[in-house]
Write a structure and sequence with these properties.
Elements: H1 6-20, E1 40-41, H2 44-62, E2 67-68, E3 74-77, E4 88-98, H3 102-115, E5 121-128, E6 136-142, E7 148-154, E8 163-169, E9 173-174
Parallel strand pairs: 1-9
Antiparallel strand pairs: 2-4, 3-4, 4-8, 4-9, 5-6, 6-7, 7-8
């Protein structure tokens, strides 16, 4: 894996920030956690490894060669809207594949869409995003772990390098070893 240049990292981090706002951690209901589910007790390191493994499988599903950003999965606070949000964690893994032409990236997105259901993912969206470029976006949930995945094929129509950008993130969990 190779790290992107400065402006590309900024763009990737901006995308990640936007995606963080869409994470299921903010869904509210009557549970004591304020979530639609009761968060499991898990160690952050184990969830980071799980998310990293799923990201590696996603890269394999693309079946294309290119440069990949070198960012590791990271645990951070999961905002749930109550006064005790720091007790909940989630793991996010933003990464991209780039230095590939659009024909190969299109093939990669098609391969991903075909392979996701076979690898335990439920595709919830496969279509254009809301950007003016109408980039193809695939959103999926892993049926066993409930890990979520967002893949966006950015064709570079705005002058930037074409790439597929991924955000892979876990559900909120409680890490008994994490002090807030």
């Amino acid at each position: 894996m190779t790290l992107l240049g400065g402006s590309k990292v900024c763009a990737s981090l901006a995308l990640l920030s936007a995606l963080m706002l869409t994470v299921g951690c903010s869904s509210m209901n009557e549970k004591s956690s304020g979530l639609e589910y009761e968060p499991q007790v898990r160690k952050s390191r184990a969830v980071e490894e799980e998310v990293g493994t799923l990201s590696s499988r996603l890269l394999e599903m693309l079946k294309i060669k290119g440069k990949v950003t070198d960012l590791a999965p990271m645990a951070s606070s999961c905002q749930v809207g109550d006064d005790d949000t720091k007790k909940y964690r989630s793991v996010r893994h933003p990464w991209s594949i780039y230095d590939v032409d659009n024909k190969a990236l299109e093939k990669g997105m098609n391969n991903l869409a075909d392979k996701l259901p076979q690898q335990g993912w439920r595709v919830v969206k496969d279509g254009p995003d809301s950007s003016k470029n109408r980039n193809r976006e695939i959103l999926a949930v892993h049926t066993k772990t409930h890990t979520q995945m967002e893949a966006t094929w950015m064709k570079g129509l705005d002058g930037h390098e074409p790439m597929i950008s991924f955000a892979v993130y876990s559900r909120c969990f409680r890490d008994p070893g994490h002090s807030s």
